[in-house]
Design a protein that fits this description.
Blueprint lengths: L5 E7 L4 E7 L3 E9 L4 E10 L3 E12 L2 E12 L10 E9 H5 L3
Antiparallel strand pairs: 1-2, 3-4, 4-5, 5-6, 6-7
C-alpha cells in the first residue's frame, strides 16, 4: 500500500457523522456521553494514522442499576477513498462487568 500524506474519513460522533482528516503520525481524541437516568455512559475514541493504516482505540465506561461496565476494543482499517467510511477490523477487545463477576458469571 502506498503511503498517503493525509487520511480523510467518516466518523460517528454522539449526534451525527463528521469527516476527520489526519496527517501521517497524527492522532485525535473524541469523547461523548454523560449522565443517564440510571447512572452514566461515556465513550472515548482515539483515531490515529501512520501513513498507511488507520487505528481506532475505544473505551466505553458505563454504570447503571446492574453496576459498572467497561468495554474496550482496538481496531485497524485500510485507508478508504477520501471522505468515506473505514472498514474497521477488531484486533483486540474485552469487557469487565463487575457485578457479573461477583455473581460468578
Amino acid at each position: 500500500m502506498t503511503e498517503k500524506k493525509n487520511a480523510r474519513f467518516k466518523v460517528w460522533t454522539d449526534t451525527s457523522t463528521a469527516v476527520l482528516t489526519l496527517k501521517a503520525g497524527e492522532s485525535r481524541h473524541h469523547s461523548f456521553g454523560g449522565l443517564t437516568d440510571e447512572g452514566y455512559d461515556v465513550t472515548h475514541s482515539q483515531y490515529s494514522y501512520d501513513g498507511k493504516h488507520l487505528y481506532l482505540e475505544q473505551m466505553r465506561r458505563a454504570s447503571d442499576c446492574d453496576g459498572p461496565l467497561t468495554q474496550w476494543r482496538e481496531m485497524v482499517a485500510e485507508l478508504p477513498d477520501s471522505g468515506d467510511w473505514p472498514n474497521w477490523e477488531t484486533e483486540k477487545s474485552g469487557q469487565r462487568d463487575v457485578f457479573a463477576e461477583s455473581m460468578g458469571y
